[in-house]
Design a protein that fits this description.
10 helices; mainly alpha; elongated; about 180 residues
């Protein structure tokens, strides 16, 4: 069996052949960027996404993918700029909201992350990954209370039911003497 990375390298080779014939094809540049990203070549993925955006600057999915690759390159400010532009184009798109919320959390802004992730969950309550990030943001937020976190866990359990392991609050949140 070939590894996932090997399959993406094979896919990338096909896109490169195609782009040699059709260098003006935005979707092909996007697809090449995705293959490069999955091969761990984030710098060249960013270059491919730039080529795609030069041809179609309002593609929110490419802007989101550009933001993700820029984050891996360590440019979180430019990553946030691309994600905000993607959100301007598609304001209620859960993958963009989730990615932006995670980036904001990485920037150690848990209050802002919690708001963005909550907005994502209002649109797409089935996103378990967003619940996880939202609960983490609430845990680190200075403005979040034990009640807020308990409410978030209750919403998670209501959405996913008994099919998920029972989650409990950290001991610090169960302590009745803890200041809310």
């Amino acid at each position: 069996l070939r590894t996932s990375s090997a399959r993406y390298r094979e896919t990338l080779a096909l896109w490169q052949q195609y782009l040699a014939l059709r260098p003006d094809h935005a979707e092909a540049w996007h697809a090449a960027g995705i293959a490069l990203y999955h091969c761990g070549d984030w710098r060249n993925a960013v270059d491919a996404y730039r080529r795609a955006l030069a041809l179609n600057p309002n593609d929110a999915t490419v802007l989101r993918n550009m933001g993700i690759a820029l984050k891996y390159l360590g440019d979180v400010t430019l990553a946030a700029t691309h994600l905000m532009e993607a959100l301007r184009i598609k304001p209620d798109h859960p993958p963009i909201l989730h990615t932006l919320g995670a980036l904001v959390m990485d920037r150690e802004q848990p209050e802002d992350a919690a708001v963005i992730l909550r907005r994502c969950l209002a649109i797409a309550p089935e996103r378990m990954d967003t619940y996880s990030n939202w609960l983490l943001a609430l845990q680190y937020s200075e403005h979040s209370t034990a009640h807020d976190r308990a409410q978030a866990l209750a919403e998670f359990e209501a959405q996913f039911g008994a099919s998920t392991p029972r989650m409990t609050l950290p001991a610090s949140d169960r302590d009745p003497k803890r200041k809310l």
